[in-house]
Amino acid sequence: MPFRLPRTTDSAPVFGRRLVQLFGGLYLYGLGIALIVRGELGVAPWDVLTQGIAKQTGLGFGLITVITSGIVLLLWIPIRQKPGFGTLMNALLVGPFADLSLWMIPTGLDLWVRIVMLFGGIVVLAAATGLYIGAHFGPGPRDGLMTGLHRRTGWKIWIVRTGIEVTVLVTGFLLGGNVGIGTLAFALLIGPLCGWTIPLFAVRRGPAVRRRTRDRDIPHPATGAAPAQA
């Protein structure tokens, strides 16, 4: 069966902007991950897990990211979470984009450069999150797992998020992932930054579309903001 873009009632310019935001945001997400990794000062919890698995298996960072996304999507089945177009693109593209950026950025840089890269990567990743969520094509695999568990269990969003990320972080650390000051900086900064970028980049759609998607809105893990799905 041929691949088709999702149906939409958006005007052509609005739908075009959504697509540009989605793919641009996913590329920047991979770039942000790479900047933080090359900062070598500690990475985000899910990337700690990716690094740990890479050390134990010898597989590439991007490939493990894609495989992990696929496994996380399987966990959506029992919680009855439905992926969107953006969910699938996230699962398939962030890993390769991260690999491309890692290939472009050298290792062993001076400390001051790595500090700039760490904080620059967090800002880029926050902007990327606002772009791809603001495109309204559905959450990423990890975002959807958290919000799906929140919906099915009734537990508070921060409890679910904390439980998942602590589990992922500890597992990744035990496997050899890089936990450091960068991990703490990410945890402290990503929420407030996403709280600014998500509404900033949210695509304004027609009132009929907003009404139709209102009941399917799901909160972003860091901020609780509710991006509508396509």
Keyphrases for this structure?
single chain, 230 residues, mainly alpha, disordered C terminus
Number of helices: 9
| Beta-strand residue percentage | under 5%
Characterize the biggest β-sheet. none
Uncertain regions spanning at least 5 consecutive residues? 210-230
Alpha carbon gyration radius: 17 Å
> What's the total number of strands?
0
Q: What form results from the Cα inertia axes? A: globular
Provide the helix percentage.
over 70%
Provide the residue-averaged pLDDT: 87
Element-level helix/strand string: HHHHHHHHH
Look at the helices and sheets and give the structural class.
mainly alpha
Distance between the termini: 21 Å
List the helices and strands and how they pair.
Layout: H1 12-39, H2 45-57, H3 61-75, H4 85-104, H5 111-134, H6 141-153, H7 157-175, H8 181-201, H9 207-214
Helix pairs in contact: 1-4, 1-5, 2-3, 2-7, 3-4, 3-6, 5-8, 6-7
